[in-house]
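# step 3/5: fold
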Amino acid sequence: MITKKIDENTIALIPEESDDLFTLRRVIRKGDRIVGDTTRVIKQDKDFARPDRGERIKIRIAFDIEKISIDDVVDRLKIQGIIAESDNESVSKGSHHSMTMKIGEPATLIKRNWNDIEKKLLFGRKDTGSFLLVAIDTSDCGIGRLTGTHLKLMPNLYSGASGKRYKSKFNIEDFFSDVQSAISSSIRENDEIIIFGPGETKRRLGNFLSELPSVKEHGIRVIDGIDSSGEDGIYTFIKSDTMRQALTKSKIAKVSAILDEIMLMVNKKINKFSMGFEETVRASEAGAVQSLVFSDKIFENQDEDKVIAFLNHAEGKGAEVYAVDSTTDVGLRVSSLGGVVSLLRFALTG
């Protein structure tokens, strides 16, 4: 999440992945004020205008929050409240309104008081970086942007080469130029470029990009061990040991390591883990949770406010809490295990 502290009570922010929206759900409370862009229907005061029709316009409002919830679409937060300020005179103060927070859309959050957990969630976590993944061969190239555990894929690019015997007019550098254009349209500040795939094409692309000042400043790494290109190559990399070795400090590598350790404990019948909501709640109440991973699955069969209180309680007890989504394999694995799992500091008895 991109954040900028305005003053002691105010922070400007832009959520970058589903995890950021889960974090905001845990931070925003009734009585807080949020400023953001939304739309509202303004009734037309014209001759012959239908009274049930209006014009939907974009407005910027500040409103005091009465209710917040995770939308069914998951990558959105629905916020309801009372309008305190507006940049449009047609929008009256004191009226009820709702807005939807989405990934990539800026907002400003104002709180009278920040508690320790809220400060930790927004200010205390270190940014583990984001990565532009490039899976390339002579025939095709897949590009995906990995932020936390959220993966966004671009459509595959195709070179036009015909197998190992290229068409007479095929020029690999033309293909590299297309890849570079796609990278430039997706890359953000502080992104690192990770290139992999079969053969030597990945190294040739790395050398090509390293000659371009606008790209090489982001940092370029060429990784061996992945023999697939395109979208399949991206997914293969995300699930591989190669990824964990290459992106050691990334969130997805940490979460993958937690899940692997839990599976190892399951096989060895070591009871220093929990699965499912009720079991993990009991472990948290005992102060036993060391690391906790949850997905949106946890909200399907549990009261949302109860889940949020549980997550904040676990964090307050010293647990490392990670949210994952279904765009990567780790999110699907957590969902299949009941939506929440944890590593424990000690085994629970009884």
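# step 4/5: annotate
Residues 251-268 form the longest helix (18 residues).
# step 5/5: archive (pending)
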